């Protein structure tokens, strides 16, 4: 029988599965695998995951948590050629949605289908990014969410309206492909995936295995701009708006001229003066769901 390792973040999102419930669920939903469960603690998790992987040599690693948990496990197993699958138990689960895993039931279906895709990653100032990083508006929202007592999607929604209307444009210097561009924007996104956990599609050109990532500038100024942008997030045609600019690159440098907040995969990174980003093509192997659209791969 094959082995599978289930890495579970017990404080991720609003889920409250205990160890016995997870074990029972795995026995039913992942037949043909002997499950081994480990819980993250926030201390030496990367070392623990690698040690357990080397101990059990699993054919599949299930990650029960949000984007931060997925990133931690991926970093720890970077050199192990592991088959990874996200079981969405986080607050937003944006990366899972990009992989076609909308609900936990989609993860069990992905185990049955066992379709593995080679997925790119982005390296930024030595930090791994699997999904989305950004300066400005969304990073400010995540910072407020972290300071809030509540967890889950409600925390995002509660703070979003005030952030949208209070955010100010910041100046940035973009350097790529022998170009230097100075722009003002309320948000700069560095995108491997195509959408946030809310379902907002921000990277209409996003392809997750093409050796490219997108740099997206968002600078809505009027109420009409905000309305159009909100509609475009839902329709997936954000790149058609005049206040949006998109560049597809394999590497870039972004100078943060006015100290905007920065986040990577939901983790706050402070206000760096500059970030250098470079693609890592086919860095990881992920099982994907049936809704993983063909346009998201090259």
Spatial separation of the terminal alpha carbons: 34 Å
Q: Give the class from helix and strand content and strand pairing.
A: alpha+beta
Poorly predicted ranges:
150-159
Beta-strand percentage? 25-35%
Shape verdict: elongated
CATH names the topology of the largest domain as Tumour Suppressor Smad4
- Average pLDDT score: 88
Query: What's the Cα radius of gyration?
Result: 19 Å
Query: Portion of residues in helices?
Result: 25-40%
Total count of strands: 16
CATH second-level architecture of the largest domain: Sandwich
Number of helical segments with 4 or more residues: 8
CATH class call of the largest domain = Mainly Beta
Largest sheet: 10 strands, mixed
Number of domains: 2
What's the order of the H and E elements? EHEHEHEHHEEEHHEEEEHEEEEE
Organism: Algoriphagus yeomjeoni
Protein name: Diacylglycerol kinase family enzyme
GO molecular function: kinase activity
Pfam families: DAGK_cat (PF00781), YegS_C (PF19279)
Features of this protein?
6-stranded antiparallel β-sheet, alpha+beta, NAD/diacylglycerol_kinase_sf, 2 domains, about 300 residues, Rossmann fold, transferase, kinase activity, elongated, ATP-NAD_kinase_N
Please give a structural write-up.
The protein is an alpha+beta fold and 298 residues long. It folds into two domains: 2-120 and 283-296, Probable inorganic polyphosphate/atp-NAD kinase, domain 1 (Rossmann fold); 127-281, Tumour Suppressor Smad4 (Sandwich). 29% of the residues lie in helices and 33% in strands. It has eight helices and 16 strands. The chain has helices at residues 19-29, 45-56, 67-76, 94-98, 104-113, 137-147, 153-166, 223-235; strands at 2-8, 33-39, 60-65, 83-88, 116-124, 127-129, 132-136, 170-176, 179-185, 187-191, 213-218, 244-249, 251-256, 262-264, 267-268, 274-287. The strands form two sheets. Strands 1, 2, 3, 4, 5, 6, 8, 9, 13 and 16 form a ten-stranded mixed β-sheet that branches. It has a six-stranded antiparallel β-sheet with strand order 12-11-10-7-14-15. It is elongated, with a radius of gyration of 19 Å. The two termini are 34 Å apart. 43% of the residues are buried. Mean pLDDT is 88; it is low at 150-159. Pfam families: DAGK_cat, YegS_C. InterPro entries: ATP-NAD_kinase_N, Diacylglycerol_kinase_cat_dom, NAD/diacylglycerol_kinase_sf, YegS/DAGK_C. This is Diacylglycerol kinase family enzyme. Keywords: Kinase, Transferase. Residues 1-128 form the DAGKc domain.
């Amino acid at each position: 029988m094959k082995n599978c390792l289930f890495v579970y973040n017990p404080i991720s999102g609003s889920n409250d599965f205990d160890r016995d419930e997870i074990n029972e669920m795995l026995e039913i939903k992942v037949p043909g695998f002997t499950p081994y469960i480990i819980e993250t603690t926030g201390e030496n998790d990367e070392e623990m995951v690698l040690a357990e992987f080397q101990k059990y040599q699993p054919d599949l690693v299930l990650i029960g948590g949000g984007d931060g948990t997925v990133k931690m496990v991926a970093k720890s197993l970077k050199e192990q050629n592991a088959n990874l699958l996200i079981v969405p138990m986080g607050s937003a689960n944006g990366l899972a949605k990009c992989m076609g895993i909308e609900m936990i039931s989609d993860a069990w279906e992905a185990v049955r289908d066992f379709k593995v895709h080679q997925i790119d990653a982005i390296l930024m100032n030595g930090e791994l990014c699997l999904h989305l990083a950004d300066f400005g508006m969304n990073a400010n929202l995540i910072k407020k969410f972290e300071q809030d007592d509540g967890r889950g999607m409600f925390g995002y929604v509660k703070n979003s309206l005030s952030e949208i209307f209070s955010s100010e444009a910041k100046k940035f210097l973009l350097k790529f492909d022998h170009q230097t561009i100075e722009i003002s924007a309320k948000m700069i996104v560095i995108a491997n995936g195509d959408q946030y956990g809310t379902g907002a599609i921000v990277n209409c050109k996003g392809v997750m295995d093409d050796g490219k990532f997108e740099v997206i500038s968002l600078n809505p100024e009027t109420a009409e701009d905000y309305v159009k942008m909100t509609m475009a997030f839902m329709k997936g045609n954000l790149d058609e708006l005049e206040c949006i600019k998109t560049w597809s690159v394999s590497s870039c440098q972004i100078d943060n001229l006015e100290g905007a907040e920065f986040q990577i995969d939901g983790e706050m990174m402070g206000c760096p003066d500059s970030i250098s980003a470079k693609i890592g093509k086919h860095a990881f192997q992920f099982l994907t769901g049936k809704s993983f659209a063909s346009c998201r791969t090259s």
